[in-house]
What does this fold into?
Amino acid sequence: MIEYILMIVAVLGAIIALIQRDLLKAAILTGISGAAIAFLYQFLLAPDVALTQAIVGTAIVPVFIALAVKKTRSMEED
Amino acid sequence: MIIDSQLASFFTAAALIIIGLYAALFLDNIIKKIIGLAFIGDGANLFIITMGYKAGGIVYIFLPDMTVNWFAQNASYPLPFALVLTSIVIGASTLAVMLALVIVLYKKYGSIKASKILGAKQNQETENSIKGDGL
It folds into this structure.
């Protein structure tokens, strides 16, 4: 049952991250989607991949995106 | 549940790949295009992991009280997992390179919108060609 909720969270997090206008919020929501995929790997019997995805998808990728947004500009211009 | 978790996981991977393709093709912001490419990578990794999943199986750790035949029948298939482990790290490093290129583009053109950058680049090229014809 939990894996279905995690799948829905992963897909919804991806969709909501891409319709945000604030790019910092998009970075945080990318991290939420990555965390859901990491827990899903644990349920798909791959704990080593889940460990790697938990670090890379939840911490490293949003920090990289947030640094790039800080270097450019935060709001999506019209 | 109506569908089993392996099929649902395949659908999740397909949805992630479709969302990422839409973002990479049709959104105008370059950082959102790159987030879409990261989602395509996540979807591909999830697809490969789901291929190795065995419903009702165990994690592929061989404990002393298991027989080899029972382990081979019940453990999930570990080869795709070892490959995906590498693929995740490579995906993160390529994402870092793409974001660095975005910062370079922003310093050169002053915008992170693809249409503005392409328009400025075409204007520059036409100016250069006109100058070249004049010379």
Summary: Chain A touches chain B through 41 residues (CB under 8 Å).
